[in-house]
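Can anyone check this?
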Amino acid sequence: MSNAFINAIKQRRTQYALGKELPLPQAEVTALIQEAIKLSPSSFNSQSSRAVILFGAESDSFWGIVKDELRKIVPADAFATTEGKINSFAAGAGTVLFYEDQDVISGLQKQFALYADNFPIWSEQSSGIAQFAVWSALASAGIGASLQHYNPLVDAAAAAKWNIPASWKLRAQLPFGANKAGFNDKTFIDDKERFRVFS
């Protein structure tokens, strides 16, 4: 298929072997992330997605928090494997923390009571779209990434470290950096199991 958008999202793959180098200046990476989130659709144009973009030592600090919190719950004899995994995320150039502003959601629930039960669901969908958009935009720029979910384990410590508003709810983390490894071929289940087309 020659569609430019499809070709762009084909580049979005999970990269665990990250490096500190980036093919773009930090300011351009920041602008790319911000633009991807701003252009992502949201229900009722709520624009509930929020992001904290961490580079260098700040990103390292986040993954240090993750290790500290995991150390409290992972058995000591199993922690070396866990630590190695977290170190692979910290090896990247930066991390995007994806949040959803719960004040926006509760405001919409009050304003549109008929749909109140759906706004949290739609918020999760908006967040997923923003995550996908950022990940795809970074991949198109030659930047590797993987999507992680250490929330809510790290929420309080991250909020204290970066003065995160109480209404922001952490939904995902995207460590990013240089691609230090290639990608295996992606496999797909048979189309007949996923799609039904009627005409």
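Reply from J.R.: I decoded it. The chain has eight helices and five strands.
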